[in-house]
Amino acid sequence: MKDLKVSLGGIVLDNPVIPASGTCGFGKELSRWYDLDILGSLSFKGTTIAPRDGNAAPRVAECPAGMLNSVGLQNPGAYHAAAFELPELKSFFHKPLIANISGFSEKDYVEAVEIIQRDSAVKILEINISCPNVHGGGMAFGTDPKMAAAITRAVKRAAEKPVYMKLSPNVTDIVSIARACVDAGADGLSLINTLLGMRIDLKRKKPVLANKVGGYSGPGIFPVALRMVWQVTGAVDVPVIGMGGVSSAEDVIEMMYAGAKAVQVGAANLQDPLACKKIIEDLPRAMEEYGIERLSDIRRVE
Ligand code: SIN
Q: Which of 117, 138, 212, 217 could form a disulfide with 131 if both were Cys (CB 3.0 to 4.6 A apart)?
């Protein structure tokens, strides 16, 4: 019997597989496909203090080996999420929850954290400083070490749960951002968010996305994500959740050899709602193939 358990700084997950924020809403749609209690955890849709309609359509575009999105943090707002979405989610999901929180100022992040963390099912606060689809916040905080540190410090002052900063790949040196967050008190890191990309419609001679640019995700970014996870886990001593193009049991194991303690699955859910289920069911086979008894035994390759 293979042991799939992993630990995120003492929070034990039955397995490392977590649907990534923005690819599973608040769980309702995915729960029509399978029992979500097979998951290690779930990171719900990036929640801001005020409700948001998101960006104008079109806001998705297909690409070779992935997709672009420019959703723009559409969400019902922290008060609605706490009062309605989380109670509903908890009626069918009984595992530790990751709360993905976004904002446009330190105050925004802190207020949303204060509301969402009251829910006892929320075990980790994943602070999104890497959304490429909004102006005046999001990625702007995650591409400057000083701003990343300032948001981390502000959130840490208010947080009663572990704080994982979600980092952007749209930087020349992700290690300097990771270090800034950890020095400012981050308990862990999540990486990577999407890569800024663009497509042009040749018939209309216009960008495909109404927002013109968007975040690229899917299997095409996996080697970039893996490289960044490996670089960051070699430089800081906090748990890292790895993500970016993960779509198979082998990808999960590879991420863990890059140093990740758990792994989020994003775009794959949009292509196949059963993606996480299939990965979890396939993990024992892949572990057997690579001679792994316990996932927690995996050590980062040098
Ligand atoms: C979005 O809502 O635009 C995607 C979220 C993100 O990339 O952080």
A: 138
Residue 215 Cβ contacting ligand 1 at under 6 Å: yes
C-alpha distances (whole Å) from 176 to each of 111, 187, 241 are 27, 16, 17
Query: Which residue among 168, 170, 193 has the greatest number of ligand 1 atoms within 8 angstroms of its CB, and so is best to mutate?
Result: 193
- If you measure from the C-alpha of residue 49 to the centroid of ligand 1, how many angstroms do you get, rounded to a whole number? 15
Residue with the two structure tokens 């649907």:
19
First-last CA distance in the chain:
28
Fold type of domain 6-54+75-196+218-297: TIM Barrel (3.20.20)
174 Cα–ligand 1 center, Å: 19
Q: How does pLDDT run across 74-123, given as a tens digit for each residue? A: 999 999 999 999 999 999 999 999 999 999 999 999 999 999 999 999 99
Helix-then-strand count for the chain, H and E = 11, 16
User: Closest ligand 1 atom to the C-alpha of 74?
Assistant: 2
- Those residues of the chain that have pLDDT short of 50 are none
Q: What is the reported pTM? A: 0.98
The pLDDT tens digits of the residues spanning 204-232 come to 999 999 999 999 999 999 999 999 999 99
Before 58, cis peptide (omega within 30)? yes
Are 35 and 11 within 8 A, CB to CB? no
CB atoms within 10 A of CB 86: 24
What secondary structure letter does DSSP report for 210? T
Phi, psi of 135 (to 5 degrees): -105, 145
The domain segmentation of the chain, as residue ranges, is: 6-54+75-196+218-297
Rounded to the nearest angstrom, the distance between the alpha carbon of 290 and the centre of ligand 1 is 35
Locate the ligand 1 atom nearest the alpha carbon of residue 100 and give its number: 8
Q: Which of 266, 174, 177 is nearest to 229 (CA)?
A: 174
Q: What atom of ligand 1 comes closest to residue 55's alpha carbon?
A: 3
Residue 140 confidence (pLDDT): 84
